[in-house]
Amino acid sequence: MVYIESAHNDRVRAWARLKTRRGRDRMSLFLVEGERLVGELLNSELRLEALLWNVASDEPPAELWQHPKADGHRFELSPEAFAAVADTETPQGLMAVAGIPQEVAQYGHRILVLDAVQDPGNVGTLVRSAEAFGFSEIVFGTGTADPYAPKVVRASMGGLFRIRAISGDAVDYLSAWRDRHPEGLVVSTAADARERCDEAPMAGDVAVIIGNEARGVSDGVRHLAQRCVSIPMAGRAESLNAAMAGTILLYEAYRQASNRAI
């Protein structure tokens, strides 16, 4: 157990840099805030670098603080030191530093491709939905929010810890995926598409593409899609935001696959 008083401590300053993408990329580490997410992390296969407790807060839950993974990685921080690391304005008393896993694309059977989805809340929600509906891999294409940014991590609600995250060029990845899954289907979205999402055959191998919040799917990525679908709506809304639309498509693919398995 190590106690750290100063917010200017070298370890504290290094952890605080994980709030920036440059810091995360350089150290291959990211922050996890809050008891629930820390619990999800400890029960995942990701590496724990440090478990941080604010000494001014309530005692941390024993099942987390005494978790076998935490042996040799527990740090007690003063309120000032803890606040220097935390990304939230009113942080909970427990936080963790975790290792970013090595990216190894496996071109799974059911994947999600994010094409310049910029809002961290949208990205985190889509991670959560993809994991919930049985997708094995997410491609964070150029211009997409960093999957390990604190806001994305929080919005993913632990889904990020259980799914492969690949950062890179979406066109290159989709081209390779299509080569490996010649019978698979690449599905894109557009508000004016004539085919409904529940009409596209998504029960088998499928790559679902979600585009930028303002511009939609880029031309280079769209050219690799075999089907472009819309989401049927009864109301007057012209469109749904990226997280909502993506979640509906992911669920539809899950529904079709589940029905086929029966």
UniProtKB/TrEMBL annotation:
Name by which UniProt lists this protein: RNA methyltransferase
Secretion signal span: none
Family named by the database record: Belongs to the class IV-like SAM-binding methyltransferase superfamily. RNA methyltransferase TrmH family.
Keywords for this protein: Methyltransferase, Transferase
GO biological process, one term: methylation
SUPFAM superfamilies listed in its UniProt record: alpha/beta knot, L30e-like
Pfam families (UniProt xref): MRM3-like_sub_bind (PF22435), SpoU_methylase (PF00588)
Domain RNA 2-O ribose methyltransferase substrate binding: 31-104
InterPro entries (UniProt xref): Alpha/beta_knot_MTases, MRM3-like_sub_bind, Ribosomal_eL30-like_sf, rRNA_Methyltransferase, SpoU_MeTrfase, SpoU_subst-bd, tRNA_m1G_MTases_N
Superkingdom as given in the UniProt entry: Bacteria
GO molecular function: methyltransferase activity
Organism whose genome encodes this protein: Alicyclobacillus mali (ex Roth et al. 2021)
